[in-house]
Amino acid sequence: MKDVLPPAVSKWQFVEEKARAVLESFAFREVRSAGTLDRAYVVNARWEHEPVTRWYRFAREERARLEAAVFGAAGAPADVESIAMAAGLLADLGVPRPALTVATGDEGRALLTSLGIGHEHTVAASPFFEVRAGEARLALGTRNDELIASLGGPAVPALLLEIDLEALVAAVDEPDESFEPPLTAYFACDGAFARAWALRAAHRLRIDGVRAEIGHGGSLEDQRRRAAELNARLAVVVREEDVHAGNVLVEDHGTDRREMVGVDELESTIRQRVD
Q1: C-alpha angle 109/159/22, rounded to 5°?
Q2: Cα–Cα distance between 156 and 270 in angstroms, integer?
């Protein structure tokens, strides 16, 4: 897998979180495994513990992908469930005009129609469905009811789904920057005393879930420019003489408002500005 750097990583996280939420809503459970899902299923003899197993994992070997599997369920309804899950994920992500092709019988086609899932039909036996966006294949579903027996397990139906995460991320139109979480406050500090004070103030905000950054180098003006570059909602300008006087300067980039705020009121002021 190639390096993914900010801000692109925020878009990846958004896609991965959406995928996790969709799979969990279909009662899939995450598996952490160094190998494939079918291998983990056989090694751990899961057929002895449950009649149907629904697993997924995020795989990073060579290329980033999402793997999902259903072991123990056969028939058109089980197949359509996996197709619906893939289609639901693409809809949640707003992927424009995905093309779904399926190889299934009359029952499967009727079930897809009843769910309002548009699709093209093919007579190919395998794969039983795939989703494309232009030339890129986003998702591939296959049924292999001989797989588990071939690995030394019993005859258990197996339905496998693979989603190409790199292709899926690329298919989401919004720019990478739009997925970055907003920075609430940037503390621009004038000297060591100011920075030590800012560390304590920022820490109280951070443990309550407020995203804050502290400037650790450069002049005060450089740090204020950096706050603007990061699109921080607020720049908190901390000078030693102001703190001794009981105040700090708060610059609101959303309203262009600048005011001196009492140090004891800083946290409540920040929350009021961003709520």
Answers
A1: 80
A2: 57
What structural domains does the chain harbor?
Answer: 8-176 (3.30.930.10), 182-274 (3.40.50.800)
In tens, the pLDDT along 74-133 reads 999 999 999 999 999 999 999 998 999 999 889 999 999 999 999 998 876 556 899 999
pTM of the predicted structure, to 2 decimals: 0.88
Region at 256 (left for phi over 0; alpha for psi -120 to 50; beta for the rest): left
Six-digit token string for 209: 């879930």
Give the DSSP H or E segment for 60: none
- Where do runs of H (alpha helix) occur along the chain? 8-25, 37-43, 76-93, 106-114, 147-150, 165-171, 192-206, 220-229, 240-244, 266-274
Strand pairing class (129-133; 99-102): antiparallel
Which pLDDT does position 62 carry in this prediction? Answer: 80
